[in-house]
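A sample copied in:

***
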Amino acid sequence: MSIFRKMSIFRKMQLLCVVIFLFVNFQLKAEKTFPITNQIQIKDFSSKNTVWEVFANRARDVVLGIALSKNKEILWIGTWGGLEKRRASTGELKKLYTTTDGLPSNNISTIISDDQEGVWLGTKEHGLVHLKTDGSLSIFNINNSKLPDNFILSLYLDQGSLWIGTNSGLALLKKNGKWKVFDKNNSGMPGYIAYPHYYNSSKDKFDSEREVSEEERLEALRKKNLVHALHSDNQGGMWIGTEHAGLIHFKKDGSWQTFNRENSSLTFNKISSILPDNQGGIWVGGTYGGSELAHLKADGTWQIFNTQNSKLPDDSVWGIQSDNQGGIWLGTYNGGLARLKADGSWLVFSRNRSKLPKYIESLHSDGEGGVWIGTRGSGFIHFTKDQSWEYFSTKFGMPAFYVIKITKLLLLDTAVF
């Protein structure tokens, strides 16, 4: 009879624990890159990260916001499982911030750099957070500030003042700490108005006590005034993308102009993403049914792109980012990643053979000719200036601080039109 079989159950368990400990310790202390094949590498950055994985699971594979510090050294990743602070040059995870560090919620809906190596965070239903350079936190909500809603959808920092798009309208936190909320009485915004009696705002749906017409439904939703996208017009004004009221332009002279499918050639009112074209116009992405990609040019004319008249892979465009070459990157809800070049040609990254996910939530330039890509359920991806892809995800059955790096485009199926 073997020695192992003669051992007591207790001794067997002790031996098993020692083996597991040695194996895990070896894994965590590995400091170098171990090549698996000549195309794929796995990196383990630090054993200190292990405690953070308790909060990760797959929630951190949903990435709704990406921000780069002003000095381009820190990459901030906003996920459903907390805020990741990473080294921008390598993707190394430096720290994961969660509710145990003072955040009011782990569900990060949007983020933006504060230009001082800190970051502003918007959360789902738990307000606004400022994580400062020294690690301290300032939290704003409807109880301690003039924030109109605790559900933050979009942020934009303009000359030290923070524009805030919420589930109930637009607010501005000025550099001097004062607040301004925009509504129908003081601006061109639709404003937040009390819901009609047939709309249950706490459940965000209509009560079933009486039948509601489509006209009444749309009117109630317009009054809710969700602000999904914000961007400076680079001329002292602000572009505002709403879910039901269309595209709104707050100009430098204080005037307001609204573009929607009722008064313009814009074919949709649900705005999910916007980006000025640096020529006086703006790119507009829509979301869900009936949406497309629109380009409002400086001369006031519109150009509409959809899956029928172009190579746009999906009509729901959740992210738009400049490629720094006169073109744009497009992240779509169900069609993955696309690039519309300055010459009008398309580069589409097919889901079928490229292994790129089809649900793209956010995009951010890496400042060096590449782009960071946040996905829904597949972590985030870095397309570098040398055209290699880096995947940061728990989807590969490994902890989230591992990286799979594809150094060749062998898995990439592109279509150029």
Confidence is low (pLDDT under 50) at residues 1-6, 22-57, 192-209, 396-417. The CA atoms of residues 370 and 384 lie 4 Å apart.
